[in-house]
Amino acid sequence: MTMQDARTREIGWHKGYLEGSRPDLRVPVRRVHLTDGNDVTLYDTSGPYTDPSVETDVRRGLAPLRQNWIVARGDTEEYSGRPVRPEDDGLRHTSPRGGLRNLDAVFPGRPRLPRRGLPGRPVTQLAYARRGEVTPEMEFAALREGLSPETVREEIAAGRAVLPANVNHPEIEPMVIGKRFLVKVNANIGNSAVTSSIEEEVEKMTWATRWGADTVMDLSTGRNIHTTREWVLRNSPVPIGTVPLYQALEKVDGRAEELSWEIYRDTVVEQAEQGVDYMTVHAGVLLRYVPLTARRKTGIVSRGGSIMAAWCLAHHRESFLYENFEELCDILAAYDVTFSLGDGLRPGSIADANDEAQFAELRTLGELNTIAKRHHVQTMIEGPGHVPMHKIKENIDLQQEVCEEAPFYTLGPLTTDIAPAYDHITSGIGAAMIAWWGTAMLCYVTPKEHLGLPDRDDVKTGVITYKIAAHAADLAKGHPGAQAWDDALSDARFEFRWEDQFNLALDPDTARAFHDETLPAEPAKTAHFCSMCGPKFCSMRISQDIRRTHGGDSGAASAGVSEGVDPELDAEIAAGMAAKSAEFAAAGNRVYLPLAE
Amino acid sequence: MTMQDARTREIGWHKGYLEGSRPDLRVPVRRVHLTDGNDVTLYDTSGPYTDPSVETDVRRGLAPLRQNWIVARGDTEEYSGRPVRPEDDGLRHTSPRGGLRNLDAVFPGRPRLPRRGLPGRPVTQLAYARRGEVTPEMEFAALREGLSPETVREEIAAGRAVLPANVNHPEIEPMVIGKRFLVKVNANIGNSAVTSSIEEEVEKMTWATRWGADTVMDLSTGRNIHTTREWVLRNSPVPIGTVPLYQALEKVDGRAEELSWEIYRDTVVEQAEQGVDYMTVHAGVLLRYVPLTARRKTGIVSRGGSIMAAWCLAHHRESFLYENFEELCDILAAYDVTFSLGDGLRPGSIADANDEAQFAELRTLGELNTIAKRHHVQTMIEGPGHVPMHKIKENIDLQQEVCEEAPFYTLGPLTTDIAPAYDHITSGIGAAMIAWWGTAMLCYVTPKEHLGLPDRDDVKTGVITYKIAAHAADLAKGHPGAQAWDDALSDARFEFRWEDQFNLALDPDTARAFHDETLPAEPAKTAHFCSMCGPKFCSMRISQDIRRTHGGDSGAASAGVSEGVDPELDAEIAAGMAAKSAEFAAAGNRVYLPLAE
């Protein structure tokens, strides 16, 4: 997306900031201007890119918003760090582009040394929360949610929420993931040997966050993994997640059996030093679980899961991720990298949902969650997959039970397999339901799922669909303030303030375009009729007449009604109806309205 | 859609027929040809248009499939019928196009006299079912569902299902609507003063049924209502529904207060003689309920509801639909027109969901349902609207309670108001849930909802989205055979039979197009890798290797696993894994697969 696009899309709203308890704590919000003079304030994930007063340059990266907060805590140190090698980018020494110097030169932004916790000091938000400290990150996230900083601290301390924030990713605008907070949405990007370039991935990231992605996972494989990730991290206002196993596999030229704990650990350190905020680790795929998938309809569909399954089969040994999990915890604790314990054995079809392989792994993830917490590492648990509606609740209930209410992070679930090209919808249905029941973050699915790699339009469609699912769940969970957005749009709809409806929409561009398709441009936007009923008749207008007759404002509206009508209102209404009758006659019994009105 | 399109879209499947108990009872099905030589049989709503052996001509209409069945029952008579008047098409006498002769000439198909039940004889499927008769229509619908004809009869007799089949619409392929059967989807078409023509409406109807619409509602307003309906009915293989009030309003030039029982009744007879299979009647909008909407956020959003509200206000009298309901029942019983009791006070926003106005009307619909049944008139009840997820179940539970389990027919519900241009998705989420809980038919919502009139692409998107919701509900309800479709597609996916995946998809064209976008054409479609993981790596293949080692076929697959692994399988697996290790070594520990393989 060019900044040109951004500017034009900003008509009708502006970037605003909520002031925190300190001058360097400013929380971005989207302020939508209504034609009635009011503003509606919405959660904003788009970063500095939508602030005209900020000059962004993808070659320099974003300003390190959190740098002072991290340094001020005095529990971290800069150090020389692990030397970057050509293999990190999947380049052989024979490669003309190989060589350390080239790599360093790839990202032109400010030079930086990696940072880590002082020896033996966990520098995680979990550790701070447990000590009773409300960090600036927690206050920042709380302001975005419209909740108290103490609530955020409590949820993180209890392990019911995570605040992914690697000390080496100071550019992020802190956010919190947990069932008591707004449901979050993750968008996946990442090149593969098939297609896509570094620039495209950075653009996909800014594009996804502009439409509402709360976090982004870089699932790149093949060439330039390290460099792509560096560009994405330095330009990302949201937490970035990865699956280190993918890069580790590249380092052994794709031979799963040649993977080792040493190679994997080295890759984790490499990514932690770059600033990856959370990592998917498939440590629950145990040797003994692999055979449980033998008679599945679609076997193992998680890439990480099948890599680990292959390793276990090749060596006939237990997973090196499982056996070295405690050491892994200590590494993540030193950078505040959050665990996303991967569901390598998730079901890949309706037929395989909730089977023994899936739930056996989930119970193991529960054990690992307990170990990670002991090491003060923030942890979320990944789930579903393909699950029919009647089997969804069992997933969240079991996860909450065996994982001590750790945040659940689910892919969909897809509620049927019969609609390839529409799996954003088959999964959006399941995502809304599982989020209502307690899932904290939803991993989006695009229309290209099962068919190919998503392009720019697919990313947008996937994000919008999942923002719908997440917000529908926020409403159902009764998140404070969630309904204000719906109410504002409903009021605009009832009053035929078309421009307000567009600007309040998740996708103003498309809403505006669709409206223009069937109605004359300007007049129609203010005319008192609904295009669904033709140009003259207007059902809503009748209600407006009724209201005008009976008094009462839309504010207390439905609440008042649903609690029953009091006698006073009855009387008022009786009188109003008599007046109404006269009114009707006086107006020549006209139900229709001239287009001009 | 041209027949050319139809032909090309038929590659990979053909139109088949299930033979009933009599030679003239042939039930259409879609037989998908798999590359492994097997066929998958799917429910088919597309009518004769997809049968290359049938010559269709929209100017002559479809063959009267049910004519002999209706005549053979000997309980109906042909009669001269109500004279067609220019006003029926919204034409004034001054109109140059006015005049009876012109109107008769408008539909060139075979001349016919209307038919009705002999005096005092209800000729409804409900009356037959109560008498213990299994009609050819019931057997036809049962074969489509894969259930026994007796089950269909029982459900209709109990009022838990309806089989909309006007004696004047012999062209339809009978289908049944009820919670024990496959969830059905209705698509709305209809011109308005704003746009669209007769030809367009007929094409929208055939287009909607081609993608899976089980019924179609013609919501035309403005000019040529009568003639448009005639063309749609004569060419429709699915039941057609209408809202007679819309045409009645045109006859009084849009002045609601000039509506009368006489004008309404005349319109109902006119439409019943044409063959309308079910009619939405807003008889539950009572004078005393109107004020309950005064303080709503979005008032009355149902067009029929606001017309009746206006009439009640103008006259300060009770609804003429409510007061003449028993006479209306006798008219519908004489043609077997099914009631769709309209929810004129449905909520138009999240804020208004489940309020007193909505549920007061629902209880009245319950009373009317009891009266209609007494007159042997088949009846379904309309519902939601805009309803947040946590308030959806209350709607279906209350409806089932107060309407004696009569089929519920719901619009969506939309689970949030913030996504205009995506309301097929906001409502698809609610539709899947309410259908799982017992709703029998879903009225689709297109991306243009609230913004404009749907075009051809919107109709397709709306139907596909709702077929997804309906099928997800069929899976969750455990409809016998529903999962076979998913299993067939999952098997094809696991075995990388791309063409089979496309042909089994709800929308083969789009699935095929998306796949082609990111992968080389032919080779990729048979190559053993998944495009999501790049060209070489294949997680599913690993599972195939595991399976090959451990034996077991995909058939009994997951069932066996989810019931737990028996010792025998354990042993088999242990042996298999040893062999697997050797296999790995022998194959040079290759996890990757060459593209060619």
Automatic annotation (TrEMBL), chains A, B:
Pathway: Cofactor biosynthesis; thiamine diphosphate biosynthesis. The keyword Membrane does not apply. Residues 77-103 are annotated as: Disordered. Keywords: 4Fe-4S, Iron, Iron-sulfur, Lyase, Metal-binding, S-adenosyl-L-methionine, Thiamine biosynthesis, Zinc. Its EC number is 4.1.99.17. This is Phosphomethylpyrimidine synthase. One of its GO terms (molecular function) is 4 iron, 4 sulfur cluster binding. Zn(2+) binds at H386, H450. Substrate binds at N188, M217, Y246, H282, S302, R303, G304, D343, G344, L345, R346, E382, Y409. [4Fe-4S] cluster binds at C530, C533, C538. One of its GO terms (cellular component) is cytosol. Its cofactor is [4Fe-4S] cluster. Residues 14-77 form the ThiC-associated domain. Catalyzes the synthesis of the hydroxymethylpyrimidine phosphate (HMP-P) moiety of thiamine from aminoimidazole ribotide (AIR) in a radical S-adenosyl-L-methionine (SAM)-dependent reaction. Coiled coil: none annotated. One of its GO terms (biological process) is thiamine diphosphate biosynthetic process. InterPro entries: ThiC, ThiC-associated_dom, ThiC/Bza_core_dom, ThiC/BzaA/B. Binds 1 [4Fe-4S] cluster per subunit. The cluster is coordinated with 3 cysteines and an exchangeable S-adenosyl-L-methionine. Residues 77-92 have a biased composition (Basic and acidic residues). Belongs to the ThiC family. It comes from the Bacteria. The keyword Repeat does not apply. It catalyses: 5-amino-1-(5-phospho-beta-D-ribosyl)imidazole + S-adenosyl-L-methionine = 4-amino-2-methyl-5-(phosphooxymethyl)pyrimidine + CO + 5'-deoxyadenosine + formate + L-methionine + 3 H(+).
